Amino acid sequence: MSKSAAAANGHTLWQKMPKANAELFALTYGTLVTELVRDYETTEEINEQLEKMGYSIGVRCVDEFLAKADQANMVIPQCRALQETAEVLAKTGFRMFLGISAEVQMVNESSFSLLIYENPLALFVELPQEEGDKWKALKYSNLYCGIIRGALEQVNLRVECKFVKDILQGDDANEIRVELKEVLADGAGDEYKEE
């Protein structure tokens, strides 16, 4: 799928999605992160919880994505290369669910970066500076990494995601590195296996 086709599909699907107020969305997410800061001792634990929550969301996003595409009579072709998957994720998935697009930079044939210049989760956010390095390790929008991991696992791609740049930490863009670890065999995921 070309970049322009992915972007057009994303715009079409965004039109069909129910909208939430961006400010309310950002404030609600901020409250969630604040609660995690109160509940957990280290930023590593907070980052881990955000990633786990995102994973739970991501495994459901694929079904929503495919259902909305079907309702719009849109054909989403099977991606044959990681770059195609990255473009659909960046231009269609991010647009559909967040109203933004991400830019794809291929690192090599098994990894890519998503550059996000507008982050709806980080509206109104400034990280505290008084405690020095403690907040440098906080990945405020780590929910995205979990969502990406969960969604790609639903299409049989086991990936590792991590924030490598964060505007809240003074970088020029948010950059999420996605590395393909394994193409999974068709079938139910680990959470559905009988014990």
Automatic annotation (TrEMBL):
Pfam families: TRAPP. SUPFAM superfamilies: Ligand-binding domain in the NO signalling and Golgi transport (SSF111126). It comes from the Eukaryota. Keywords: Endoplasmic reticulum, ER-Golgi transport, Golgi apparatus, Transport. GO terms for biological process: Golgi vesicle transport; macroautophagy. It is found in: Endoplasmic reticulum; Golgi apparatus, cis-Golgi network. GO terms for cellular component: endoplasmic reticulum; Golgi apparatus; TRAPP complex. May play a role in vesicular transport from endoplasmic reticulum to Golgi. Homodimer. This is Trafficking protein particle complex subunit.
